[in-house]
Amino acid sequence: LYFLSFCSISYNIDFALVIPISVQHRSVSEFSCAILLRVMSVPPGEKSKAQLRAERRAIQEAQRAAKAERKGGGESSLNAVAQVEKHNSNLVQKDSFTSISEADTISQKNSNKMYDGIEPHISFKNLGADYLKQCPSDVETQTLAVLEALKQMIEDYSVSPGKSSRREIDTLIDCCFQYIAGETPFPPNIATLSKQLKWQISALEDANDEEVKKTLLDLLDEFQEQNLTLATTAITMTVADVVKKMKEQPVILTYSYSSTIGKCFCKMKSMGIDFEAIVIDDGPQGDGFKLVQQIVPCDIPTQYALLNGIRHVLRHVNLIILGAFGILANGNVLASVGCCQVAQIAQTKNIPVLVLCQTYKFCEKVMTTSNEACWAGCEVLPAEFVTGVVSEIRMLPCTAVPAVLRVKQPA
């Protein structure tokens, strides 16, 4: 009735002439076609925009009604509209279930993916596809896992007949790194490791299979010793000197988890340095709780608090130490989400903030905001909130990163 009233007002249609019999005695298609013929009989020169829109709507209604009659055999137009709405809702439901199914099977598809016809080694498959996409709670643990996977891959490697071992193993390493990185750029620690491996492979002459494997395994062992073991010891010595020079009882606050900070605290306690530790966490029993479990057995007085209560414990703190995911060329620090808040609050209280970071995590990239960080769980800490960077070289300002990178470039 609403449709008939609309048409009678818009087109001045006399429905008694067009439809002489009752609607309920005629089919839906005949009813719609009768209206459509009468609407289209208006001369073209007299049509307005509103009339053209009404014509299009009438055509669509006629098509829907005819389609509904073919399917249901005389169903009303209201039932046809209900069927269309139900069909649309089913399509939306189907799309949502398809998305869930795709999300559930994406890891399985990535695990079966091949790069340039080469399948990743089983050690990298154990790490998982897109392993480097997430900002880890501890970078050193991630680096050790990748080093162990590389060692296992090189030990299992055997050169194919008629191929250069140097080129083939270089392609295999690229394939494995691409598998664990996915579409995400390499983090600073893995980027440095990849560069050193490529430089060493390019420097190798055409040697036999065993010599190439031995050279690369020695490189990985040296990388682990220089950048993880010895660098952590040197950083601990520098932090210990800073704590010894403090006039008041040292109360050190840290955020989240870092194995370097845990080793540093335990080493300082074994050196006879008395201090208190406050561990701030982003949630109950989060990553910071791992640090508490690591340092409490070393008889270090420890407090555990959440990030929303940092102001209540900050009045006793005289030094803040943070871990780092990497340091950028412009001096900004890649750190866990929440470090910016800790550093900003520390600046209001004039508390120095030290960042512990080995030089192998220095990178040439430049980022200014956390939106540019492409690793989940990572944010950019501005350089103005950092007092100094403690590395294996010495305590450095954040702006010294480009100079260190130039010195560490392979000849």
Automatic annotation (TrEMBL):
Gene: Eif2b4
The entry's keywords: Cytoplasm, Initiation factor, Protein biosynthesis
Gene3D superfamilies (UniProt xref): Translation initiation factor eif-2b, domain 2 (3.40.50.10470)
Gene Ontology cellular component terms for the protein in this record: cytosol
Family: Belongs to the eIF-2B alpha/beta/delta subunits family.
Molecular function in Gene Ontology: translation initiation factor activity
Organism whose genome encodes this protein: Trichinella papuae
Keyword Nucleotide-binding: no
Subunit structure: Component of the translation initiation factor 2B (eIF2B) complex which is a heterodecamer of two sets of five different subunits: alpha, beta, gamma, delta and epsilon. Subunits alpha, beta and delta comprise a regulatory subcomplex and subunits epsilon and gamma comprise a catalytic subcomplex. Within the complex, the hexameric regulatory complex resides at the center, with the two heterodimeric catalytic subcomplexes bound on opposite sides.
Subcellular location: Cytoplasm, Cytosol
Protein's name in the database: Translation initiation factor eIF2B subunit delta
